[in-house]
Specification:
The protein has 20 helices and 21 strands. With 639 residues, it is an alpha/beta fold. A five-stranded parallel β-sheet has the order 3-2-1-7-19, with helices on one face. A five-stranded parallel β-sheet has the order 8-17-9-10-13, with helices on one face.
Length: 639
């Protein structure tokens, strides 16, 4: 373990321990002392589905014991640099069970060991352990479209394997969505100690859910550390690509900042443009007729001064609920137009900074960061799926899929009532009438309801008739005059790879084949498009379990595995078999139909224009991890 002491004194350590996640201290003590009694029932946490004690109900006496034991053990470690012998496999399994608060099934052990990374996080880099022939790899070039989170991850994986690559980025900087979205209040809705590359876990996050500027800086820092900038062509937009069957290569058409068009050749193409990159405007008459400033939140116009203005915001999704509390205090009046409420996910620490004490623990206490991240991973991995699985015998299926899910919904409804006390209109407006997870839930620490209670804020849930020169005309005949109109209406999530034109074997158009209903095997490959991979592709969005970065790492690892498969067979290209593709999509559709986003009545971006859930992964994280560890040769035809 390569932890080092950064010069903190004993008093700082003792003060820092007051900020600890105490169950993590139990696990630290096993490493420092070898004493497994710290895993006994006295120190075992038990968590609640909604709210509750973040330390899992440990008694004050037990927490004090843990702090004192860690204090002594860490001081000894700082002086000697010595740890107890590495825990054996049985003890590690027991430590995992402690984190999960129940025995981890045997099938999870290898998966959990991988995520735990006790031998060092650098070994988690995608592509690590795949024996690619570097001499052969040097003649195989990959073009990656997009320098966001997934594109950078793929570049790191290919670099690890010695495969030449170039990243094409339309923007002048890396970061993807964290470069594009600069609206006030923009932040991540996954805990940052989980929303980060597993191999680049950062203990210095300033907040539990960090803001856009911090996230952009993180991805820029990763790109610099892994020397990716020299592999990136900025201000380069991909227009389309064509598969050359004879050569076994892709010809990629690009346009540079000056408008010049070029053609590039590669053996494989990875699309890392994501799902949430094309802003969506609402289907309302008169869009474009408003005479004042109007813009989408993903293209925020910072030149527009909102102070003293009458501002209208259409939409109350994740972005809108972040920026409306930021702008409302400045405006003369803000009118919020809501079509469908989203379930609030109570998150008391959503805007909280991480204390200096916790930073000290993460940086200087051996294994604290490792197990703290693992606690987050276990809490947000496959456990929450239990609240989404239908119990056919449950007698309130119109309300929730099972009894535990009903308790969760009742708890959140009570939370909404408490937040909107004295405002029955807001209680009704903020309480959805569909199953939890029917659409994306929204992190909330009470700020949303407080904003809507302001004297200068109005929530309007009536239908909109049209946008006009002066503002918004409602279907009930009211005219709401505005000075500025902001669209917080999300993205064209179902329009995968738009506006690029992709043509595969026989010149067939990808978009014509999809017909607005995007599908791919494992979200990555599809028949007739050899050596073409899609990151964050169809049905790889996760709703309640984990971080999307987890999926990107799995996908990047799989892509390197595909390069190895080509080498092993001395083949130019691989193409997923139609029957494999069809069987996968049949299973995905059936599984999604049983999940709340498949049957709930909510208006949601999870469904495409055909009514099919084309975004979401309905299975466990371990299932995707297992499917992508090593590509199955039998799934592909080689040429």
């Amino acid at each position: 373990m390569a932890d080092t002491h950064s010069g903190h004194d004993e008093a700082q350590l003792r003060a820092a321990l007051e900020h600890a996640h105490h169950p993590t201290l139990s696990l630290v003590l096993v490493h420092l002392t070898g004493d497994i009694s710290f895993l006994s029932p006295r120190y075992q946490p038990a968590y609640e589905a909604l709210g509750g004690d973040p330390d899992g109900g440990l008694s004050e006496e037990a927490k004090a014991e843990l702090r004192e034991a860690v204090y002594k053990a860490v001081l000894d470690y700082w002086k000697t640099g010595k740890l107890a012998p590495k825990p054996d496999a049985a003890t590690i399994k027991r430590m995992m069970d402690y984190c999960a608060t129940q025995p981890i099934p045997d099938e999870y052990v290898a998966f959990a060991m991988h995520e735990l990374a006790l031998d060092g996080r650098d070994k988690l880099r995608p592509g690590k352990g795949i024996e690619v022939d570097r001499k052969q790899a040097a003649a195989f070039k990959v073009l990656i479209i997009g320098a966001g989170m997934s594109g950078l991850c793929t570049g790191i994986a290919l670099k690890e394997a010695g495969v030449p690559f170039e990243i094409l980025e339309k923007n002048p900087e890396v970061g993807g969505t964290w470069y594009d979205n600069t609206y006030p209040g923009c932040r991540v809705d996954n805990p940052n100690h989980l929303y980060s590359y597993s191999f680049e876990a950062d203990h210095a996050w300033p907040q539990h859910f960090s803001t856009q500027d911090q996230l952009l800086a993180y991805f820029q820092g990763v790109a610099k550390k892994h020397d990716l900038y020299k592999h990136i062509r900025f201000n380069t937009e991909v227009l389309g690509m064509d598969w050359n069957e004879d050569a076994g290569t892709w010809t990629v058409r690009v346009r540079t900042k000056g408008g010049k068009e070029e053609r590039l050749t590669s053996n494989a193409v990875v699309s890392a443009v994501g799902q949430l990159n094309q802003p969506k405007l609402p289907d309302i008459a008169g869009i474009g007729s408003f005479k004042g400033p109007a813009f989408h939140s993903a293209r925020w116009d910072h030149s527009v001064d909102l102070a003293g203005k009458r501002v209208g915001v259409i939409g109350t999704g994740c972005s809108a609920i972040q920026f409306i509390p930021e702008i409302a205090p400045k405006t003369a009046h803000t009118t919020v137009f809501q079509r469908t409420a989203g379930w609030l996910a109570p998150t008391p620490d959503y805007h909280d900074r991480i204390s200096d004490g916790k930073h000290l623990l993460l940086a200087d206490v051996p294994f604290y960061q490792v197990w703290y991240r693992f606690f987050l991973f276990i809490a947000m991995a496959d456990g929450p799926l239990a609240y989404l699985v239908k119990d056919p015998s449950y007698n309130r299926l119109d309300y929730a899929p099972n009894a535990e899910a009903a308790k969760l919904r009742e708890g959140i409804e009570q939370y909404i009532r408490e937040q909107t006390a004295g405002r029955p209109d807001l209680t009704a407006a903020l309480t959805p009438n569909f199953h939890i997870s029917g659409k994306r839930s929204i992190r909330d620490n009470g700020v949303w309801a407080e904003t809507l209670k302001r004297d200068n804020v109005t929530m309007d849930t009536s239908p909109i008739e049209a946008v006009n020169a002066g503002g918004i005309r409602m279907k009930d005949g009211r005219q709401i005059d505005l000075d500025v109109l902001i669209y917080g209406t999300g993205f064209k999530a179902s329009d995968f790879l738009v506006p690029m034109e992709v043509r595969g074997t026989g010149g067939k158009s990808l978009h014509e084949i999809w017909g607005g209903d995007a599908r791919a095997y494992l979200g990555l490959t599809l028949p007739g498009f050899p050596n073409f991979f899609i990151m964050y592709g169809p049905n790889t969005n996760i709703v309640v379990n984990g971080s999307i970065i987890f999926f990107s790492e799995c996908e990047a690892h799989y892509i390197v595995g595909c390069v190895k498969m080509l080498q092993d067979r001395k083949a130019k290209a691989l193409d997923v078999k139609k029957e494999v593709f069809d069987a996968f999509n049949t299973a995905i559709d059936a599984a999604n139909a049983e999940m709340p986003w498949g049957y709930a009545t909510a208006n949601t971006w999870y469904r495409n224009s055909h009514g099919r859930v084309a975004q979401n992964w309905p299975y466990r994280l371990i299932d995707y991890w297992t499917m992508t560890r090593t590509p199955n040769v039998a799934d592909y035809a080689f040429m």
